[in-house]
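Comment thread on ticket #2218

A.B. wrote:
> Attaching the input chain for the structure job we discussed in standup.
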Amino acid sequence: MKKYKLKRTMGYSLLNIFFILLCFLGMIPILYALSLSLSSGSAVLSSGISILPDNPTLNNYKAIIIEKPFLVWLKNSVVLSAGTMIIAMGVSVEAAYAFSRFRFKGREGVLKGLLLLNAFPQILSMFAIFRLFKQMDLLNRHLGLIMIYAGSMCIFGIWNMKGYFDTIPIEIEEASKIDGAGNFKLLTAIILPLARPAIIVTSVMILIFVWNEYLFATTFMLNENSYSLAGGLYQLQAGDYSRSWPLFSAAAILVSVPILIIFFFIQKYMVSGLTSGGVKG
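C.D. wrote:
> Ran it. Output below, let me know if you need it in another format.
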């Protein structure tokens, strides 16, 4: 018995060491980008890879905030992310609960249809959406992007939330209805608090998608003042901007900080929210 426990402990230890080394390897590009953002020039690109710069400075961060319209891009990304998350989750929660609890005609067909729509690459609809936006005067307007993002992320939200609602025992709802709770009170006072982990995780996944989305943001936002952070980062390395990799790295680090902060706050919900959402289909 002791020999078995010793082998299991050694096995877990080796596995943990392997994953720790894997994490360190994955962090090398991030650490190099951080080092590059703190460097005083682009000469670091011609030298060997160094995690720590010779003369660290915050000038690149000051330049990206003061000299470039980074704060405008940040505001645009916040508007796009928050608007998409509110609309997508407002629709997804109610639709997912309906698909989970009610057995109506065409239910399976609608679910499969939504899944099929999500399987097609977004680039297939690019030209049609561009012409439609041009006719509706939605180019360079955040409302158009929010409509696209919310429509596509609703499918993800519905499927993920439905899987979580399926894990909530129906007996809880039946007991609440016996006590006189209506459908609205049942959803808001009982179901939503129970589904908090899935709601938080799904909301953050939608936010991360919009925050990092590049294809639509650079296609339909043609004005510098309408760029999101993804489009702004592209412009730092194209067009009239100089190709300064330290400046680009500083901008990339700043873009990642808000998402990292949000992730650290909700990480306790990540495992339960994602695994429970995939238990049932």
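A.B. wrote:
> Thanks. Noting for the ticket: The CA atoms of residues 237 and 243 lie 5 Å apart.
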